[in-house]
């Protein structure tokens, strides 16, 4: 796996990932993607020579709706997804409101929100939109496929928080070939 097209072909070849993407596409949420561990963990498993199966961590569904910001809406979307696929660990967040929780200025869209995620290799998302698979990677995919973990520019300014996250995640135990920059 070397290019964005390789990554998209990989996702297209994973029935469980495509099924999750179809479930999310059916919600018809604006600027809606699945990101973080959904992509990162699958790619790291494959790059470590492991077969990938269904997602074993949260499936982070992120969308941007600056009009419908009632927090209960995201909860309803999450409940719908849990009902349709109860074995999966769904997490749904409207990025139009996440700046409040994170202490940032308001985000412009989902791509802007991803720029404020902790690691570059995590700030990657995919979506199925009108039958086509799209990739959103504001920092590119080089860190992901190079097995490199380093903070986004925003989290480079929050190193103690970033370092606590790395320690809690303990990714090196599962993926020993990772190169972690802290």
Q: What report would you give on this structure?
A:
This protein is α/β, with parallel strands linked by helices. About 45% of the residues lie in helices and about 15% in strands. It has a single domain, classed as Beta Polymerase, domain 2. It has helices at about 5-10, 15-25, 35-45, 70-85, 95-100, 110-115, 140-145, 155, 160-170, 170-175, and strands at about 35, 60-65, 90-95, 125-130, 130-135, 150, 180. The strands form 2 sheets. A 5-stranded mixed sheet has the order 3-2-1-4-5. A two-stranded parallel sheet has the order 6-7. β2 (about 60-65), α4 (about 70-85) and β3 form a beta-alpha-beta unit. The two termini are about 25 Å apart. The mean pLDDT is about 95.
What's this model, at a glance?
The protein is of the alpha/beta class and 182 residues long.
Shape: globular
CATH overall fold name: Beta Polymerase, domain 2
**Which secondary-structure class do the elements indicate?**
alpha/beta
Mean pLDDT value: 95
Order of helices and strands: HHEHEHEHHEEHEHHHE
- Cα-to-Cα separation, first versus last residue: 25 Å
Whole-number radius of gyration? 16 Å
Topology, please?
Layout: H1 4-12, H2 15-25, E1 33-35, H3 37-47, E2 59-63, H4 71-84, E3 90-94, H5 95-102, H6 110-114, E4 125-129, E5 132-136, H7 142-145, E6 148-149, H8 153-156, H9 159-169, H10 171-174, E7 179-180
Parallel strand pairs: 2-3, 6-7
Antiparallel strand pairs: 1-2, 1-4, 4-5
